Oxidoreductase
Amino acid sequence: MAEPHQSTTIRFGILGCADIARKVSRAILHSPNSTLYAIGSRSIEKARTYAAANGFPSSTKIYGSYDEVLDDPEVDALYVPLPTSLHLYWVVRAAEKKKHILVEKPPALNVKELDVILKACQSNGVQFMDGTMWMHHPRTKIMGEFLRDSQRFGQLKAVQSSFTFSADEDFLENDIRVKPDLDALGALGDAGWYCIRASLWAANYELPKYVTALRFPIKNSAGVLLSCDASLHWEDGKVATFHCSFLSNLTMDITAIGTKGTLQVNDFIIPYKEVDASFSTVSEAWFTDKDLEWNQKPSEHIVTTDLTQEALMVKEFSALVYGIKHHGLAPEKKWPTISRKTQLVIDAVVASIDKGFEPVEVNY
């Protein structure tokens, strides 16, 4: 792999040795405008082992603390895959060190924490983006164009989404996503985040008026959600429902239904293949004579890409950082705004559960 030109390259540091950082570190190396400059762990031995196991370049600096990464003046941006409970402390510290922030989702435990994070990023002039990778796949843009097409799709009426996977016994006992002191939002913060983002994306990021959690969510003995459902309601009659779970077979579905058309995608978070991804659409479908069959079947659309969606995420983030660093541009507000709206709906689902599954009003 050719070394990127240093003058146009954003130098990343990584905090921690999380499993998902294997994917994002690979993306940093594949993106044409970024380089993996440093990694820090609470143990330098752990950081060295992780770097070697994941093929980090020999030039990557290895640190035995997170603070050493933050204090390195050559680090432009940080990828933060730490447990959600640690985001507030470390992201604020990083922003104060003028490091641009790519943080794993959910970015905070609640919107109150997220607002502190976003204020720190804004006041220090650094870019913020959460790691919702599917947003950066070219398929997402093309699907969005269909949803905004008044002739083919019409007006959005309903969204149904799901993200589930069947976690093994070790995950359900030991993963950080089932620990109340590390990732207290559980399946809602991990899998539900994607479904909520899908609902907002389909609605062109218009917030719902009310959110209602469905009854009988499943929690572990520590009170962390393992499975839950909720509905989102807009004043114009749109509705979105989602199901997220650590206890069911792998699904990653979106169905968006309009007055004239329908969009369906079955692998929206991680495509079946890295190099291409598909979705289906149908417009103004009806039945043949005697209602024996449909008058048309959905069309499949395949979108190819040279870079994976995570590399495209890193590429877009790095381009924003480059513009701030070298051209004096302001940080892009789109990404923190979308993160905050997603977090608001997360909060509303939690509040609805706590209030006995009553509707909760969403206020920006």
Summary: The chain is about 35% helix and 25% strand.
